[in-house]
Amino acid sequence: SLCPHRLLNFIGSLLPGSFLHYCFKNNIQVFCPAITDGLIGEFLSQSKHNIIIDLVADIRGINTLVKNSAKLGTVVLGGGISKHYINRAALCNNRG
């Protein structure tokens, strides 16, 4: 299985000049709680390869990141799921 932030890191390694590539080069983790809700999810569902996306691993990953960070800051593109995702992580770790 593969967690979404590692998949996005890999994609960033392949796309020079992109936002994901900048994050890849600077070791910035990108979390996408609804990664399967769009073209990436459709691509993975149609793939010949049996790729399993482990969404729970990303919840653990963001909780660990929030818990161990000296400061918190977010950039939320959109709202809804992504906003609730980071806010929940902050609250669950007594940071919000």
UniProtKB/TrEMBL annotation:
Keywords of this entry: NAD
The name this protein goes by in its record: Deoxyhypusine synthase
Organism per entry: Trepomonas sp. PC1
Listed PANTHER family: DEOXYHYPUSINE SYNTHASE
Family statement: Belongs to the deoxyhypusine synthase family.
Gene Ontology CC annotations of this record: cytoplasm
Transmembrane domains' residue ranges: none
A Pfam family assignment: DS
InterPro entries: Deoxyhypusine_synthase, Deoxyhypusine_synthase_sf, DHS-like_NAD/FAD-binding_dom
Example of a GO MF term: deoxyhypusine synthase activity
